[in-house]
């Protein structure tokens, strides 16, 4: 071979080698993140940050070795089936179904092959999403944070703070699939306490205003807000109306109290999303969802906003303050 031909051949080989090497590298996995919340909601951003934190703990960093396709329903649950169908068409490796039972149902209906990891506030076995907590079976597993199952305990704490409240209003979203169970538990707790329960339904912003008008008309003495992604997204509106009407209120998680609400009892929801990220990472590494038991959150938070208590003219007894995990001054 002539020297010039050899140099030309060598140059061609050196040029082709990195291209061939790149072609052999595994494709970056794509994860679908499905949420019923709004994309620009601070709450949705907090939850997504928790999810990414869980992924990174196992070595998956967005943009470096994993891609996340986000789909937000903007609090319009009828959009969820179309959004999850879009994720399926993108051939995502795993779907994180978040923001309530409607997201789980949409994902479960859309695919029986793509692994699904959910975050859920109630019992997924009772709601029919999995076969059992230890062996969920099929292509689905996830994290249950039990927020919707804590209503009775939360109502009891509210009663301790305002023992003379004869009528307690409960605000709930009737479109949330698991709301019926929450209502049943809270009704039983109210009967045990000998208190009248006034149920206020709200699934759109205008119904929240209507609910507070009913609360005033019926002269409710206290308010319990049920765990629900939509209601949490409207926390500023709810907290402001409770302050306007000087109504002591118990909320399902600390984001309400951080916004000026009186107190909350519930799970650390961002940590639940972090744990969902951990499960997604484990599946990306080869584990099967059917073999991953439902992760049951056990960390509950009781948070009190003392400044709000003072504005309402409520003196929080030391016995209740000692129960609090956090007191906001």
Which helices and strands, and how do they pair?
Blueprint lengths: L2 H22 L5 E6 L6 H16 L9 E6 L7 H10 L4 E5 L2 H10 L5 E5 L19 E5 L6 H11 L5 E6 L6 H15 L2 E6 L3 H13 L4 E4 L3 H5 L1 H10 L4 E3 L2 H5 L4 E5 L1 H16 L10 E2 L3 E6 H6 L6 H4 L4 E3 L1
Parallel strand pairs: 1-2, 1-3, 3-4, 4-5, 5-11, 6-7, 6-8, 8-9, 9-10, 12-13
Antiparallel strand pairs: 10-12
List the defining traits of the structure above:
single chain, 329 residues, alpha/beta, Rossmann fold, seven-stranded mixed sheet, 13 helices, 13 strands, 43% helix, 19% strand, elongated
Structural features, described:
With 329 residues, the chain is an alpha/beta fold. It has two domains: 30-145 and 268-298, 3-Layer(aba) Sandwich (Rossmann fold); 148-267 and 301-328, Response regulator (Rossmann fold, 3-Layer(aba) Sandwich), CATH 3.40.50. 43% of the residues lie in helices and 19% in strands. The chain contains 13 helices and 13 strands. The protein has helices at 3-24, 42-57, 80-89, 101-110, 151-161, 179-193, 205-217, 229-233, 235-244, 254-258, 269-284, 306-311, 318-321, and strands spanning 30-35, 67-72, 94-98, 116-120, 140-144, 167-172, 196-201, 222-225, 249-251, 263-267, 295-296, 300-305, 326-328. The strands form two sheets. The chain has a seven-stranded mixed beta sheet, sandwiched between helices. Helix 4 links the parallel strand 3 (94-98) and strand 4 (116-120). Helix 2 (42-57) packs across helix 11 (269-284), helix 3 packs across helix 4 and helix 5 runs parallel beside helix 6. The radius of gyration is 24 Å and the shape is elongated. The chain starts with a helix and ends with a strand. The model is unreliable at 16-25 (pLDDT under 50).
């Amino acid at each position: 071979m002539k020297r010039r031909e050899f140099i030309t051949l060598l140059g061609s080989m050196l040029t082709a080698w990195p291209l061939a090497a790149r072609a052999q590298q595994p494709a970056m996995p794509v994860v679908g993140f499905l949420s019923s919340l709004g994309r620009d909601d601070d709450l949705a951003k907090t939850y997504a940050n928790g999810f990414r934190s869980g992924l990174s703990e196992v070595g998956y960093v967005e943009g470096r070795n994993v891609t996340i396709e986000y789909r937000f329903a903007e609090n319009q649950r009828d959009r969820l089936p179309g959004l999850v169908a879009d994720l399926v068409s993108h051939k995502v490796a795993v779907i994180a179904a978040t923001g309530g039972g409607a997201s789980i149902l949409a994902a479960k209906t859309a695919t029986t092959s793509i692994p699904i990891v959910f975050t859920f506030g109630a019992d997924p076995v009772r709601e029919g999403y999995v076969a059992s907590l230890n062996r969920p079976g099929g292509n689905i597993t996830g994290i249950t944070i039990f927020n919707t199952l804590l209503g009775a305990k939360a109502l009891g704490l509210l009663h301790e703070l305002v023992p003379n409240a004869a009528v307690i209003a409960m605000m709930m979203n009737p479109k949330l699939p698991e709301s019926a169970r929450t209502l049943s538990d809270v009704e039983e707790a109210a009967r045990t306490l000998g208190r009248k329960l006034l149920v206020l339904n709200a699934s759109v912003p205008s119904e929240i205003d209507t609910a507070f008008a009913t609360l005033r008309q019926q002269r409710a003495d206290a308010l319990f807000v049920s765990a629900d992604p939509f209601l949490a997204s409207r926390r500023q509106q709810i907290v402001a109306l409770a302050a306007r009407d000087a109504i002591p209120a118990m909320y399902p998680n600390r984001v309400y109290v951080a916004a000026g609400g009186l107190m909350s009892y519930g799970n650390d929801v961002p940590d639940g999303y972090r744990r969902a990220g951990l499960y997604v990472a484990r599946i990306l590494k080869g584990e099967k969802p059917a073999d991953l038991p439902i992760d049951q959150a056990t960390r509950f938070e009781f948070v009190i906003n003392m400044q709000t208590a003072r504005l309402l003219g409520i003196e929080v007894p030391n016995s209740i303050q000692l129960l609090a995990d956090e007191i906001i001054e």
